[in-house]
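Residues determine shape. Take a concrete instance:
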Amino acid sequence: MTGQILSIDVGTTSMRGILYDEAGQPLATESVATPLVKHGDFIEQSAETFDDALLQIIRSLTKHAQPAALVLTAFRSAPALVDRDGKALTNFIMWQDTRNRAICERLLAQNDAVFQKTGAGINAVFTASKITWFKEETPALFEKAHKALIVPDYLMCRMTGEFHTDYTYGSRTSLMHIKDCAWDSELCALFSLPEDILADLIPQGSVYGHVLPSFAKESGLPEGIPVITAGGDQQCGALGLGALDASSLVINCGTGSFVIGQCDEPLLTSPAMICNVAAVRGKYILESNILSSAAALDWFLRELLPDLRCDGCPDLAAFNALAASVPPGACGVRCVPMFQGCGTRDWNPAARASFTSLNLTHTRAHLARALLEGIAAEITKSIRALPASLSSAPVASLGGGMTKSDLFAQILADMSGKELVRYDDGEATALGAFLSAAVTCGWYPDEKSAFAAVRGNAPHKRFTPDAANRALYDALLTETEEVYHALPGGTG
């Protein structure tokens, strides 16, 4: 097969498409916002929003070329109920929605058993308890449902008429045995779910199905081309940043932040780490997440710096200049950025954010720097929770929107003590999906060869730790941890 590959990257608040040529060079790009729907504590997204965004992107990009294949990656753990035609019966419950918290809490006695089977403890982010919420709170709709599909599988079903989910998404459900890559009947029973509500499992990098004549007519895609499931967004992001062996360390900072290392087999070392199936065939990843990164920055800009605008949008350059105007350590101001709870290292949805040690000499510039340092501190703590083979890696690759800030990248290098590499083009997730699809299409023998061919000599920038800030930032790490445990919702 030759030609172009259309890579679709479904993010939390936007969807992007990039049309790549055989050499992995982008030919055209299209992006559509997919704003969240919030009802009190509920955070949802409608199927129609995703449908419209997908069609808009495909129609735009197929004007440039007719792709030989389409590959899709997306955020994970956001289910909806669908009927036999794949039509959504509900909105999608988004990954950061914690309406299922009580369900998780009543199952915590089984946490160790779930961890040993799935590679992750019971938590409100993963899919299973969200589907249980549908069963308990919307029983009539659950009874009518054919399947519970997460967003990527809904979109690929829309294109192909098939009902599947790949191993990377299965490893984010609390229902798939991490070693066997099969649904586990005991886990389904624990969450009070019939196994037939789940889609069939297939390997990551598989052909999910082929474009239906009806969708081809609606979208402009060629009829019958393969639709490939590349795996979850963080797995693909790690692949796009070069996580190809057991010495690779990746930091991806978007709405939330993710610290990811690859391993050759499931490592069930600590519930503070998630072990998932990797985008690379036959491999696994260890992952730690920080729930609020760019989301916290967006809140700060919207609520505390509404005057920093450029062409109607938040002025990130002005924000970075403001934060850089105060010295490392923010003159004692500390931020614990747990705006949506604490992620993997403590699995504590009750945790809350704080700014502390303020006095009348401090300004919003101090708060701005403290926020960046607080996010970097959480990432560093997650790195240190990894097994030594990964946490001791001297170099890590950076991706995600927040890392476009040189100031934040340098703070993170200083805080973590690691040399950080940031590629100039800033792309990771959609590129990782392309690399997976290129292997599936037979363009390269494996992901390592594909990465070397496409990104081996790509321009990049390196951020080297400044040893002068090490003692200050070590103290900051200790202080912010003490604040976390002392606050209401902490575990002190």
Remarks:
- The domain at 242-427+459-492 is CATH 3.30.420.40 (Nucleotidyltransferase; domain 5).
- The mean pLDDT is 94.
